Predict the structure.
Amino acid sequence: MHGYEEWTREWMAQRTATRDLAFLLPHLSPGMAIIDCGCGPGSITVGLAEIVAPGHVIGLDIEPRQLEAAQRLATERATPNVRFEPGSVYELPFPDATFDVAVAHFVLEHVSDPMRALREIRRVLRPGGLAAIKDPYYPAFIFRPQTTELRGFGELAEKVRKHNGASDTYAVDLRAYLLEAGFERTEAQGGLENIAGNEEAARVLPMMLQNQVRERAFRDTVLEQGWATEAELDAISAAAPDLARRDDLFGFVVFVSALGWVAK
Ligand SMILES: C[S@@+](CC[C@H](N)C(=O)[O-])C[C@H]1O[C@@H](n2cnc3c(N)ncnc32)[C@H](O)[C@@H]1O
């Protein structure tokens, strides 16, 4: 969906374990073994390693460019207790009952069979182990002002996500999914993050508008399906600087943070 260009990595690398996994922090303690499934550029993974040191954290991703960026970050931050490995959340390359905690942050929203992924995550957790899953609920996202370009961008993004086999809405059913995957007990909470609207909120919205439609995979899908022309995609991208200057720019994203415990 977002591709693997530099802008995506820079955007995701701003995430931190303490901010973006705040719901998990009370359950972490030094010495734990953690797997971060779909670790991306690794900023959350490295943060987890700092929190549970001398415990060990594995970051796993299907994309080599993400793993390289993650390894660079771990080296920069001198974090010895983190390791990055290639692999899929559908087939985790670890024996049963290896980890105390498994994380999937904005990952299962992209896979076509989140239940299969959750069962696999449960398999590698020890008795009493904990899964922390966070994903967006797209129907509640708000982007303003409703310019032609911003509305067009929202509509195209929805079509591409569906075309990729991803679910816009599964996150609100995470408690039920976790129970069906064999977790014994679950908790979930809704959350909201402002992505435009005041000085503190990052101006993610224009940045996404500008770059997402230039992303090769996104662009190819839209053009192949005939959902927009090259010129229309370029117009969306070109509208971003004007949008960034607007005083009425506003937007937020909504997500679900869920925890699932394996029976002791
Ligand atoms: C939106 S990024 C999130 C990255 C990171 N968790 C974060 O929040 O910053 C999704 C990541 O999941 C990875 N991914 C997608 N499908 C995967 C799969 N089946 N197994 C493992 N990783 C996968 C992608 O390569 C990408 O790095």
About this structure: The two ends are 37 Å apart (CA to CA). The mean pLDDT is 94. Strands lie at 34-37, 57-61, 82-86, 99-105, 125-136, 142-144, 185-196, 250-261. The first strand starts at residue 34 and ends at 37.
